[in-house]
């Protein structure tokens, strides 16, 4: 089975939005997929502190919520923030997934705030449980992985006055990024992104209305969700046979959620996909030589 990956970590160096653990997250995931999931080095692209890419990847960085007016109803749509602030929205992810050829399995692991529902809110697999254990105290030196959308627009705008009409926002992104701007700001493409139910698996670091965290508990910065994924995989690798452990997408997210709650993080990772993909092995399973 051929496997390919794009891993992006954005620390936002030399800005007031800087993080410290996102590049470490990429290094963690790179080690995992090379050593335990059978990926070849030539088939993995690693980008650190990168601008927006045409490849929509496993990503660790800031998230944001884009205000949208749909008729008389106000809502916010999820997005992730590259280092050039040319945001990648749910519509960009859906467009990518729609273009996949038949037989291709596509997984997004997003360790960023507001990352839930970057594919489709209707396909959430793990029901929220109000009886879940209360978290322990939050670890020290914790940073929120989010930037307010108004702040992004202010940073990009040459004016000190932010005008809230979406048309003005679209004009700002069009002027700066042209055809590379998000489809969210293309009025001709706003209503064409229903995706087939059998395509796309999203593992988000939190719900659509929650915060993901970057933390430094023992001098080693990391994204809390990415580190929980690492711990889950390590636990299964240590406890199974020499042929390698297996874990489904659903079980991985459930166990990562338990670790985060135990460690004090009030963020609930979510899984968005259809039923068969929920039961599928994470990244197709471990390498056969483990």
TrEMBL record:
Residue ranges of domain Peptidase C14 caspase in the record: 3-278
Coiled coil: none
Transmembrane intervals: none
Pfam families tied to this protein: Peptidase_C14
InterPro entries per record: Metacaspase (IPR050452), Pept_C14_caspase (IPR011600)
Family note: Belongs to the peptidase C14B family.
Name recorded for this polypeptide: Peptidase C14 caspase domain-containing protein
Source organism of this protein record: Hibiscus sabdariffa
